[in-house]
Design a protein that fits this description.
The complex is a heterodimer of chains A (111) and B (485). Helix content of chain A is 49%, strand content 0%. In chain A, helix 2 packs across helix 4 and helix 3 packs across helix 4. Chain A is built from four helices and no strands. By secondary structure, chain A is mainly α. Chain B has a single domain, classed as TolB, C-terminal domain (Neuraminidase, 6 Propeller). In chain B, strand 21 and strand 22 form a beta hairpin. The model of chain B has no long low-confidence stretch (mean pLDDT 95). Classes of the chains: A mainly alpha (111), B mainly beta (485). The interface between A and B is large, with 40 and 53 residues.
Amino acid sequence: MRAPGLALAALALLSCGSPRRGEPVAPPPRLGAEAQRGEAAFMAWCNECHPRGEAGLGPALNNKPMPGPLIAWQVRHGLGAMPAFPEETLPEPELAALVAYLKALRAGPAP
Amino acid sequence: MPQRRLALAALLPLLGGCYAVLPSAGGGQTAFEPPRRIDAADVAVPAGYRIEAVASGLTFPTNIAFDEAGALHVVESGYSYGEVWTAPRLLRIAADGTAEPVATGGRNGPWTGAVRHGGRWYIAEGGQGEGGRILRQEPDGRLTALVEGLPSLGDHHTDTLALGPDGWLYFGQGTATNSGVVGPDAAEFGWLHRHPDFHDTPCRDVTLSGANFTSHSPLEANRGAMVTTGPYKPYGTPARAGEAVPGRLPCNGAVLRIRPEGGPLELVAWGFRNPFGLAFAPDGALYVTDNAYDERGSRPVFGAGDLLWRVRPGQWHGWPDYSGSERLDDADRFGPPGGPAPPLLLRAPPNIPPAPAARLGVHSSSNGIDFSRSPRFGHVGEAFVAQFGDQAPMTGKVMAPVGYRVVRVDVATGTVHDFAANRGRENGPASWLGGGGLERPLGLRFSPDGDALYIADFGVMTMEGEAPAPRQGTGVVWRVSRTGG
């Protein structure tokens, strides 16, 4: 009975922790051309609730072990308190760029 | 690999459920034992910069100012949320950090800013006691009002001021309420008991949609009774569909201006909520920070981030029906979890609001602003913004502390970067982290030579349940400069 509890606790930590990514605290992430475009979409639609990918009103985004398609699905459809961002708000190319940016945030600073 | 994806997909509900399951974790939701510890080593700034504390022991410092000689001054508020009243003061800070009063006000704080012009000080007096005023200090030291009776008896006050390139004094005027409707939250702030008839005033004529809101009265006269309140109305007064509300000056949620020698008040732009910080960019454009809606009161709004505006003269900027250029009646975006969307209050918007220059954290309380003008400091043309930090759970629940730092904003792209923030695995005020760094940055200003950024750190303000508990004597002024000259 103890193992499932521990696993759930680990998942909760995994889901809700907030590793720092801010410029004073850590070197900036390496952004390719697509991720740079994604940064603009992030600042327009995501930064309010997840400042620089950290937790805020919502959970941290920069430590989620989610593959790109799942990230895109959640952005498109929303989940829990998070709203959906339909195509008229976030066209497909912008969504792809946003996913690239979120992956770069998760990867952290350039080596 | 497929199994891994399946497992990750199974995680999705957990990720989405964090907000519903976890309690609020705001930066003020902590205990504090004085004295405040101050240690600049606990604050991280980018490589090539250093930060140091230059004054401490201040009570509710709100802003920074300089005289013609470049001498540092700091504004002490004289009032804080939590209904704590002290004497508002303008202090000259000596090189050794000691403070000497230059001007002292009465029970009408919060003082929110000061500028020096033509050999005189001009001070924005918030006006929680008697209404807001713009004060001028005469040569004999007396304070006289250029304008008084500004509608500042509610949630928000007369905000800081800035001298425009045209020689006018520009200042912000906050709204009476969170989202246009006086509710029981006004009693929790304290002001509804003092001023039960106070409400918002529009700057231009508006026509109401007819939306009304019911609540249990917190007033002694009819405590517990169900009352109905409309927008731009006193508590307990309903609105009618199609009702016209005349606009007039002074009004709420506006940027206003007045000549330093006095004269009539002029409207610059309206439709803001609480335009606390004002600064002119190197290109001469006026920018303001705008504290966005809270999830509280009779018309709670969820998920609206603070905004940085490039002010469009004459335009309405969206309050009380938009967040940026988005309508609030989108339940998925702005309805509290499990609740309805905020109904629109106006039959038609005065204009479609412009897009903001940048979006900042929900509940970050983004306030003081200034632009870097010196290549020696760097980031020329970027806006630096002080973030006071959340007041959760009073303003709404958060999953982690928001704000408590200084950010820089590329106003051309809307990109926001941290500039000064406490070290540690998590973000938060020093009292929450257990360190000696930033508490609640509120005002900031570059030195006249542009070489240093001065930050007014309001000090410790914890939340005791829903009530703010500000601590006198814990304010600090920080200076950020380049290393190596």
